[in-house]
C-alpha cells in the first residue's frame, strides 16, 4: 500500500485537488481552535486549509511523496504544517496532544482499522472533537473513488463500534457528488460524523 500511495502522489497533479474537502470546509468552525491532527493527510489540501484558518496543524501519512507535495502547498500559501511520515500504529505523538482529529477519506486496511482508530483516539484530549468523512459500504456501487474492498468501507454501526469514546453530535450516511481532483469525481456514498470525546 505504501508503494501505491507514493506512486499516486508522485505525479505533479494533485490526486484529490488543492481545495479542501467540502464537509471539512463547511464544518471547521465547529472544531476547537488549537492543535489539530490530520490523519493520513496525503498531499495536504485539508491541513493547509486549516492552517490558513488559524489552527496549529499537524499531519501524518506514510507517503514521502505526499509529504513533499503537502509542504510545497503549505509554502505556496505561506503557512506551516508539521508533517510526519509514519505508519499509523507507530505514531510517536504524546497521548492527549490534540484538541481535534480530522479523518477525510481515511481507509486503513481492515485488519488494523479498529486498532488504528483506538490508537488515534488516545491522542485526542478529553472533550476534543473529531470530524470524519469516509466512503460507506454502498460506495461499492459507484466509480467515484475509494477502495474496492467492502471491509475497508464504513457503516454507521462500524463507526460507533470503532470510536467507542465518542459522543456523536451528528452521524449520517449521505449520497453526495464528489469533485475533488481526478480521483474523486461523481456520485458517491459517504459516512460522516462530528463528535466529542467523552
How would you describe this structure in keywords?
198 residues, alpha/beta, Rossmann fold, seven-stranded mixed β-sheet, 28% helix, globular
Tally of DSSP helical segments: 6
Unreliable sequence segments: none
Task: State mean pLDDT (0 to 100 scale).
Answer: 96
Number of structural units classed as domains = 1
Main sheet attributes: strand count, strand direction, barrel closure: 7 strands, mixed
CATH superfamily: Vaccinia Virus protein VP39
Named at the architecture level, the CATH assignment is 3-Layer(aba) Sandwich
What would CATH call the class?
A: Alpha Beta
CA distance, first residue to last residue: 33 Å
Count of extended strands: 7
Percent in strands: 25-35%
User: Strands of the largest sheet, in order across it?
Assistant: 3-2-1-4-5-7-6
Structural overview:
- The protein has one domain (2-197): Rossmann fold, CATH 3.40.50.
- 28% of the residues lie in helices and 32% in strands.
- It is α/β, with parallel strands linked by helices.
- The protein has helices at residues 2-10, 22-27, 45-52, 64-76, 110-122, 156-162, and strands spanning 35-39, 56-61, 81-85, 98-104, 124-135, 166-180, 184-197.
- The protein is built from 6 helices and 7 strands, in the order ααβαβαββαβαββ.
Amino acid at each position: 500500500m505504501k508503494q501505491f500511495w507514493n506512486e499516486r502522489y508522485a505525479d505533479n497533479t494533485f490526486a484529490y485537488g488543492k481545495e479542501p474537502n467540502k464537509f471539512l470546509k463547511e464544518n471547521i468552525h465547529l472544531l476547537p481552535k488549537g492543535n489539530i491532527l490530520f490523519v493520513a493527510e496525503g498531499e495536504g489540501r485539508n491541513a493547509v486549509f486549516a492552517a490558513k484558518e488559524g489552527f496549529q496543524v499537524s499531519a501524518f501519512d506514510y507517503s514521502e511523496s505526499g509529504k513533499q507535495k503537502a509542504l510545497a502547498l503549505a509554502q505556496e500559501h505561506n503557512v506551516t504544517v508539521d508533517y510526519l511520515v509514519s505508519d499509523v500504529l507507530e505514531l510517536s505523538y504524546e497521548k492527549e496532544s490534540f484538541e481535534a482529529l480530522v479523518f477525510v477519506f481515511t481507509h486503513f486496511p481492515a485488519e488494523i482499522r479498529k486498532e488504528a482508530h483506538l490508537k488515534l483516539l488516545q491522542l485526542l484530549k478529553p472533550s476534543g472533537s473529531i470530524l470524519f468523512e469516509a466512503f460507506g459500504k454502498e460506495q461499492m456501487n459507484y466509480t467515484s473513488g475509494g477502495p474496492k474492498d467492502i471491509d475497508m468501507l464504513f457503516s454507521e454501526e462500524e463507526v460507533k463500534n470503532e470510536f467507542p469514546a465518542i459522543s456523536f453530535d451528528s452521524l449520517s450516511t449521505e449520497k453526495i457528488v464528489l469533485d475533488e481532483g481526478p480521483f474523486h469525481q461523481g456520485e458517491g456514498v459517504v459516512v460522516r460524523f462530528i463528535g466529542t470525546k467523552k
